[in-house]
Structures are given as structure tokens and as C-alpha cells.
Fold:
Amino acid sequence: MSNSDSTDFEAFITAEKGLSANTCIAYHQDLEQFFTFCTVHQKSHREADLRFLRSYLGHLKKQGHSSRTLARKVSALKQFFAFLMREDRSTGNPAELLTVLVKEKRLPKHLTEAEMVSLVTAPKGQTEGAIRDRAILELWYATGCRVTELVTLELSQFDFEQRVIKVKGKGNRERLIPVHEEAIKWCLRYRDVRHEWMRRWGLVDTDVFFLTSRGTVFTRQALWKMVRSYAKEAGIERPVWPHMIRHSFATQLLAHGADLRAVQELLGHRSITTTEVYTHLNIENLKSMQAKFHPRS
Structure:
């Protein structure tokens, strides 16, 4: 972004609002696209009104953008013009009444409780690799961590005595997540394996908890391959990908009566609306159960 308004806005959402790197990149690209539209129509972005923004939105629709993408672009504009007002660079927010109807809410795929137990217990034997993999799956299912949070987790983030971990999520926001005893037991067993690997490879300066047997960081790609492999061993025939474990964690907590706000805190969602999707998912499960078992269905 070339002008001072956009440069200052980017600094604001990065430093003060603490938005994730991916969100900042997306907003950057969205505003670049808007500025290009302004240039083509020989208009300054500060001169934009609601009518002009609606014509821009119509232009984006003709390009074939999905409603979800359009909603994000509108969000970028709303925050940008709100920033200009905050800095006394504009007298109003022309994007305030700009709306996009998101036609469908995609419900996250999840595993059943039986499938999750089969997946978590799939690593068999007492080999070093099996102990590590069991620790990963137990901790993952116990906490609902994001993939990145899991692979970057450090030993110093564990409090084994209190059975909690401190997780640094999106926007560097920290949260404490309790961990049940079974997951802690496997993580302690793996900690001994990890110590042996570090001794074996002469590592002294790494704090990352989950390592390969060669002493390197366990990557997202390795996690993906591991989940697919153990899902196959567990006899789960449908496609399984890593984020389904997080979805399963949230869905099953709510199914057993957990408070939505508590689940929001555990997942590290900034907004409760993000967590509410799991409520819709639970409703779908209830509908399915009712259709199957109710005598009048």
C-alpha cells in the first residue's frame, strides 16, 4: 500500500489491534484492490461514499468472488474507514452500512467420540515414536489447540503439576488450557523420550516440545501425514485432516453441556460468534438423532 493512510492503518492493525499475520496480509491485498478501483475511477479513497462503495462491491461480485471473500473485503473497508475517523482524517465511515449476505454457513467437519478414541489410541507399542505420537494426539484432543499452536508448543509452556499449558494463539494472545490426567501422563512419558533424543543429538538450545527422532522440529506437514496414517489404522474410512481434532474437541464439549463462553476461551476465539458455529453443528446432530429415533419422524 502506497499512501500514508494505508501505511498507518497497516501499522495500527499489526501493532495495536494485534491481528494475525494472515489477516493483515489479506487486508493489505483487499485495500490495494480498492485503491486500484479508486484510481481507475479517478477518485480519492477519502472521497468515497456509500454509493461508490456499493458500485465497488458490485464490481467484485462480477469478478466471481464468493460471499465469504466479499464479507472479508467489506470488513477491511469498515476497519480502514473507522481508523481514518479515529485519526480525524475523515468525518464519517461510508462503509458502515455496507453489508454482504453470506448465504450459507459451512459447518466444520468433526469426528465422533468413538472415532476420536480410536484415533488417539492408534499409536501402539512402546517405541519412542509411538510414545511421542500418542502424547501429541492425547494433548491435541485434550486441548483443542490449533495445528500451529501444537507444533510450536514449548516445554516452558507446560505446568505438569497444575496440569495446564499456556498457549500463545492468534495475535499473540495467551490463554491457559487445563489438561486431563491421561494426556499429562503421556506427555511426561514423551518428555523422557525427548530428553534422550536431545542427549543423542547434542541439542542444548531447543525448547520446542514435540521433536522428530532426529531432533528436528515436528512440522505441520508431518502432523498431517501422521493424522492420516493413524486414521487409516483406526479404521476411519472418511477423509480426516488435522483441524477436525479441534472441531471434535469443541463439538463434544458442547454436546456434554459445556458453556459456550468457556469453549470460546479454550479455543482462543476473539469473538463468540466464531464459537457459535459449533452450536449450529450440535443442532444438526440433534436433528439427525431426532429423525432417527423419534416415533413420528
User: Anything to note?
Assistant: The first strand starts at residue 158 and ends at 159. Residues 13 and 23 are 9 Å apart (CA to CA). The chain has two domains: 4-86, 113-292.
